[in-house]
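Posting this for the archive.
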Amino acid sequence: MIERRPVLDFVSHAVLILGVAVVAFPVYLALIASTQTATQIATAHPMSLLPGDNFINSYRLALFGGKVEGGGTIAAGWPMMWTSLVMALGIALGKIAISLLSAFALVYFRFPFRGLVFWMIFITLMLPVEVRIGPTYQVISDLKMLNSYAGLTVPLIASATATFLFRQFFLTVPDELAEAARIDGAGPMRFFKDILLPLSKTSMAALFVIQFIYGWNQYLWPLIVTTSEEMYPIVLGIKRAIFGEIYVEWNVVMATAILAMLPPALVVILMQKWFVKGLVDTEK
């Protein structure tokens, strides 16, 4: 039975609104700053919380670059967003493909030391990222993959978390399905394609959302493997616009930050239903 009390409803809504306001305020501040000029932001103390009239110019500079008030030059943001998009899609789709196949092999194939192989994959979750960066960079450098999309995406594709997630899901699939497919003459890959993949759609959707955001927000790995500005993702573009400049054009920096938020937000909004359903199905 659900008990409804007006006071509790008021308190719960007040706490919810306060939480939303705390989370949304930095985004609102960035949006407002992107509509003002750099001079207005630098001279006003505190900064005005009302929109300015420099919206179009700030976003034009953030997207296409050009000369700014301080005399410096802003690099175009859209090539960096394209690099981030390719990187995020490559990591998300690559992780899903590799993890599906590895989980399929672990659950449905009988081979020596299968349990040991699973635990060797699982134990990589306990390795800090910093431990793997040096050897991984050496391998990428030896393979001549620096400053390339392959260098940005391939080292981040393998995922023990996703393998574990799909393995646990495949273990819940009744064995009768595999036996029925075998009786009908279906081979392993046909069983995988026609039965397991359709059943895994919601899990794949939830994982895609998580991994897309993970790939889009990558900072440390691109910072190490890219020396050419043409291969910078948008996160490095924001860092470059802030550091190393005598006069920071905060309106353009904030406009770039807002633009960088849009693709992940769009993915979450468009796939919200699948994302929630995938998480709930996974918990079952």
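The CA atoms of residues 104 and 110 lie 11 Å apart. The mean pLDDT is 86.
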